[in-house]
Amino acid sequence: MLQSVKSLLILEEKIDLKHLNEYLVDHGYSVVYKENEKQFIEKCREAKYDLLVICRVYGDNFTEDLFTTISSTQNSFTPVLVIVNNSVFPPLNIITRIKANLITFPFSNDEFLFRCDNIIRRIEFDENVHKTILENSNLIESIPVGIGLTLEHGNFISVNPMFAVILGMTKDEIMQENFLRLCHPDDYFIIRKQLDRLLKREDETVSFESRLINNEGKTTVCKIKTVIIWNENIFKSFVFVIEEVI
Question: Do residue 105 and residue 157 come from a single domain?
Protein backbone atom coordinates (compact mmCIF):
# COMPACT_ATOMS: atom_id res chain seq x y z
CA MET A 1 0.00 0.00 0.00
CA LEU A 2 1.14 3.55 -0.65
CA GLN A 3 1.69 6.03 2.12
CA SER A 4 -1.39 7.99 3.21
CA VAL A 5 0.43 11.22 2.30
CA LYS A 6 1.36 11.05 -1.37
CA SER A 7 4.64 12.71 -2.32
CA LEU A 8 5.34 14.62 -5.55
CA LEU A 9 8.65 15.88 -6.89
CA ILE A 10 8.11 18.54 -9.56
CA LEU A 11 10.59 19.92 -12.08
CA GLU A 12 9.15 23.29 -13.15
CA GLU A 13 11.66 24.71 -15.63
CA LYS A 14 9.23 26.60 -17.82
CA ILE A 15 6.17 27.41 -15.75
CA ASP A 16 5.51 28.12 -12.09
CA LEU A 17 3.32 25.42 -10.53
CA LYS A 18 3.61 26.60 -6.93
CA HIS A 19 0.08 28.01 -7.14
CA LEU A 20 -1.03 24.35 -6.97
CA ASN A 21 0.69 23.75 -3.66
CA GLU A 22 -2.09 24.66 -1.23
CA TYR A 23 -4.66 22.77 -3.29
CA LEU A 24 -2.48 19.63 -3.47
CA VAL A 25 -1.65 19.74 0.25
CA ASP A 26 -5.37 20.01 1.05
CA HIS A 27 -5.88 16.80 -0.93
CA GLY A 28 -3.23 14.73 0.82
CA TYR A 29 -0.04 15.55 -1.11
CA SER A 30 3.43 16.57 -0.02
CA VAL A 31 5.13 18.54 -2.80
CA VAL A 32 8.76 19.45 -3.50
CA TYR A 33 9.56 21.87 -6.34
CA LYS A 34 12.87 22.16 -8.21
CA GLU A 35 13.64 24.71 -10.92
CA ASN A 36 16.46 22.98 -12.84
CA GLU A 37 17.41 19.46 -13.85
CA LYS A 38 20.49 19.22 -11.63
CA GLN A 39 18.48 20.00 -8.47
CA PHE A 40 15.70 17.70 -9.62
CA ILE A 41 18.05 14.76 -10.23
CA GLU A 42 19.70 15.22 -6.83
CA LYS A 43 16.28 14.99 -5.16
CA CYS A 44 15.48 11.92 -7.27
CA ARG A 45 18.37 10.16 -5.55
CA GLU A 46 16.28 10.08 -2.37
CA ALA A 47 14.04 7.57 -4.18
CA LYS A 48 11.09 8.29 -1.90
CA TYR A 49 8.50 9.96 -4.16
CA ASP A 50 5.22 8.47 -5.36
CA LEU A 51 5.23 10.51 -8.58
CA LEU A 52 7.78 12.58 -10.52
CA VAL A 53 6.39 15.53 -12.52
CA ILE A 54 8.42 17.11 -15.34
CA CYS A 55 7.51 20.31 -17.18
CA ARG A 56 8.36 20.11 -20.86
CA VAL A 57 5.55 22.47 -21.71
CA TYR A 58 7.12 23.93 -24.86
CA GLY A 59 8.45 20.60 -26.09
CA ASP A 60 12.05 21.83 -26.31
CA ASN A 61 14.94 19.53 -25.42
CA PHE A 62 12.59 16.58 -25.13
CA THR A 63 15.05 13.67 -25.20
CA GLU A 64 15.42 10.42 -23.32
CA ASP A 65 18.52 11.60 -21.44
CA LEU A 66 16.69 12.93 -18.39
CA PHE A 67 14.51 9.82 -18.11
CA THR A 68 17.56 7.55 -18.36
CA THR A 69 19.20 9.53 -15.56
CA ILE A 70 16.07 9.28 -13.41
CA SER A 71 16.08 5.49 -13.76
CA SER A 72 19.73 5.37 -12.67
CA THR A 73 18.82 7.11 -9.39
CA GLN A 74 16.85 4.11 -8.08
CA ASN A 75 13.59 5.36 -9.61
CA SER A 76 13.17 2.71 -12.30
CA PHE A 77 9.60 1.98 -11.21
CA THR A 78 8.55 5.46 -10.10
CA PRO A 79 5.84 6.82 -12.42
CA VAL A 80 6.56 10.02 -14.35
CA LEU A 81 4.01 12.63 -15.42
CA VAL A 82 5.17 14.97 -18.20
CA ILE A 83 3.49 18.34 -18.77
CA VAL A 84 3.48 19.22 -22.47
CA ASN A 85 1.93 21.80 -24.76
CA ASN A 86 -0.56 20.26 -27.14
CA SER A 87 0.75 22.40 -30.00
CA VAL A 88 4.33 21.16 -29.55
CA PHE A 89 3.81 17.48 -28.80
CA PRO A 90 6.95 15.43 -28.03
CA PRO A 91 8.06 12.68 -30.45
CA LEU A 92 5.84 9.61 -30.09
CA ASN A 93 8.79 7.21 -30.39
CA ILE A 94 10.34 8.73 -27.26
CA ILE A 95 7.03 8.70 -25.35
CA THR A 96 6.58 5.02 -26.20
CA ARG A 97 10.05 4.08 -24.97
CA ILE A 98 10.00 6.04 -21.71
CA LYS A 99 6.40 5.00 -20.91
CA ALA A 100 5.65 8.42 -19.44
CA ASN A 101 2.21 9.71 -18.51
CA LEU A 102 1.22 12.99 -20.20
CA ILE A 103 -0.95 15.98 -19.35
CA THR A 104 -1.37 18.96 -21.66
CA PHE A 105 -0.99 22.55 -20.48
CA PRO A 106 -2.99 24.58 -19.55
CA PHE A 107 -5.04 22.55 -17.09
CA SER A 108 -7.21 23.22 -14.04
CA ASN A 109 -6.27 22.29 -10.49
CA ASP A 110 -8.90 19.55 -10.58
CA GLU A 111 -7.53 18.11 -13.82
CA PHE A 112 -4.01 17.96 -12.45
CA LEU A 113 -5.13 16.37 -9.17
CA PHE A 114 -7.29 13.82 -11.01
CA ARG A 115 -4.33 12.86 -13.23
CA CYS A 116 -1.95 12.42 -10.27
CA ASP A 117 -4.50 10.42 -8.31
CA ASN A 118 -5.15 8.09 -11.23
CA ILE A 119 -1.46 7.37 -11.79
CA ILE A 120 -0.79 6.65 -8.13
CA ARG A 121 -3.91 4.49 -7.79
CA ARG A 122 -2.75 2.46 -10.78
CA ILE A 123 0.62 1.85 -9.10
CA GLU A 124 -1.19 0.83 -5.91
CA PHE A 125 -3.33 -1.56 -7.96
CA ASP A 126 -0.19 -3.05 -9.55
CA GLU A 127 1.31 -3.63 -6.10
CA ASN A 128 -1.84 -5.43 -4.98
CA VAL A 129 -1.65 -7.58 -8.12
CA HIS A 130 1.94 -8.46 -7.24
CA LYS A 131 0.82 -9.56 -3.76
CA THR A 132 -1.93 -11.71 -5.29
CA ILE A 133 0.59 -13.30 -7.63
CA LEU A 134 2.86 -14.13 -4.71
CA GLU A 135 0.01 -15.97 -3.05
CA ASN A 136 -0.54 -18.16 -6.10
CA SER A 137 2.42 -20.37 -6.99
CA ASN A 138 1.00 -21.27 -10.40
CA LEU A 139 1.02 -17.61 -11.44
CA ILE A 140 4.55 -17.16 -10.12
CA GLU A 141 5.74 -20.00 -12.33
CA SER A 142 4.28 -18.49 -15.52
CA ILE A 143 4.65 -14.73 -15.03
CA PRO A 144 7.10 -13.14 -17.55
CA VAL A 145 9.28 -11.40 -14.91
CA GLY A 146 11.77 -12.91 -12.51
CA ILE A 147 10.54 -13.44 -8.96
CA GLY A 148 12.77 -14.59 -6.14
CA LEU A 149 12.04 -14.96 -2.43
CA THR A 150 14.86 -14.82 0.11
CA LEU A 151 15.42 -14.89 3.83
CA GLU A 152 16.52 -11.70 5.61
CA HIS A 153 20.20 -12.24 4.85
CA GLY A 154 19.59 -13.02 1.18
CA ASN A 155 19.55 -16.84 1.00
CA PHE A 156 16.97 -17.94 -1.55
CA ILE A 157 13.73 -19.67 -0.54
CA SER A 158 12.35 -20.00 -4.06
CA VAL A 159 12.63 -18.54 -7.57
CA ASN A 160 10.46 -18.81 -10.66
CA PRO A 161 11.74 -20.00 -14.06
CA MET A 162 12.11 -16.46 -15.49
CA PHE A 163 14.43 -15.46 -12.63
CA ALA A 164 16.74 -18.28 -13.69
CA VAL A 165 16.45 -17.37 -17.38
CA ILE A 166 17.41 -13.74 -16.77
CA LEU A 167 20.51 -14.76 -14.81
CA GLY A 168 21.45 -17.57 -17.18
CA MET A 169 21.50 -20.10 -14.33
CA THR A 170 19.46 -23.11 -13.32
CA LYS A 171 16.99 -22.88 -10.45
CA ASP A 172 19.12 -25.34 -8.48
CA GLU A 173 22.20 -23.14 -8.94
CA ILE A 174 20.34 -20.04 -7.76
CA MET A 175 18.92 -21.85 -4.72
CA GLN A 176 22.49 -22.42 -3.53
CA GLU A 177 23.28 -18.72 -3.87
CA ASN A 178 22.62 -15.56 -1.89
CA PHE A 179 20.93 -12.61 -3.62
CA LEU A 180 23.54 -10.13 -2.40
CA ARG A 181 26.35 -12.30 -3.75
CA LEU A 182 24.71 -12.12 -7.18
CA CYS A 183 24.83 -8.31 -7.09
CA HIS A 184 27.78 -6.44 -8.57
CA PRO A 185 30.21 -5.45 -5.75
CA ASP A 186 30.02 -1.78 -6.75
CA ASP A 187 26.24 -1.84 -6.25
CA TYR A 188 26.25 -3.67 -2.91
CA PHE A 189 26.07 -0.70 -0.54
CA ILE A 190 23.33 1.04 -2.55
CA ILE A 191 21.24 -2.14 -2.48
CA ARG A 192 21.93 -2.80 1.18
CA LYS A 193 20.75 0.72 1.99
CA GLN A 194 17.50 0.17 0.06
CA LEU A 195 16.81 -3.14 1.82
CA ASP A 196 17.51 -1.59 5.20
CA ARG A 197 14.82 1.00 4.48
CA LEU A 198 12.35 -1.86 4.04
CA LEU A 199 13.48 -3.60 7.20
CA LYS A 200 13.09 -0.35 9.16
CA ARG A 201 9.69 0.16 7.51
CA GLU A 202 10.73 3.55 6.19
CA ASP A 203 9.34 2.38 2.82
CA GLU A 204 6.94 -0.38 1.83
CA THR A 205 8.58 -0.95 -1.55
CA VAL A 206 11.90 0.09 -3.11
CA SER A 207 13.01 0.10 -6.74
CA PHE A 208 16.48 0.35 -8.20
CA GLU A 209 18.74 -0.82 -11.01
CA SER A 210 21.61 -3.21 -10.33
CA ARG A 211 24.05 -5.38 -12.21
CA LEU A 212 23.53 -9.06 -11.38
CA ILE A 213 26.36 -11.52 -11.97
CA ASN A 214 25.83 -15.25 -12.58
CA ASN A 215 28.21 -18.05 -11.62
CA GLU A 216 30.04 -17.75 -14.94
CA GLY A 217 30.74 -14.05 -14.48
CA LYS A 218 28.15 -12.79 -16.97
CA THR A 219 26.72 -9.40 -15.95
CA THR A 220 23.06 -8.50 -16.55
CA VAL A 221 21.61 -5.06 -15.79
CA CYS A 222 18.20 -5.42 -14.16
CA LYS A 223 15.38 -3.28 -12.87
CA ILE A 224 14.61 -4.62 -9.41
CA LYS A 225 11.56 -4.01 -7.25
CA THR A 226 11.58 -5.30 -3.69
CA VAL A 227 8.98 -5.70 -0.95
CA ILE A 228 8.91 -7.56 2.35
CA ILE A 229 6.23 -10.06 3.30
CA TRP A 230 5.40 -9.64 6.98
CA ASN A 231 3.43 -12.03 9.17
CA GLU A 232 1.99 -10.08 12.09
CA ASN A 233 5.06 -7.80 12.18
CA ILE A 234 7.45 -10.74 11.89
CA PHE A 235 9.71 -10.83 8.82
CA LYS A 236 8.75 -13.63 6.45
CA SER A 237 10.71 -12.97 3.24
CA PHE A 238 12.10 -10.48 0.78
CA VAL A 239 10.43 -10.58 -2.64
CA PHE A 240 12.63 -9.48 -5.55
CA VAL A 241 10.94 -8.79 -8.89
CA ILE A 242 13.53 -8.42 -11.67
CA GLU A 243 13.33 -7.36 -15.31
CA GLU A 244 16.30 -7.29 -17.64
CA VAL A 245 17.22 -3.85 -19.00
CA ILE A 246 17.63 -4.24 -22.74
Answer: no
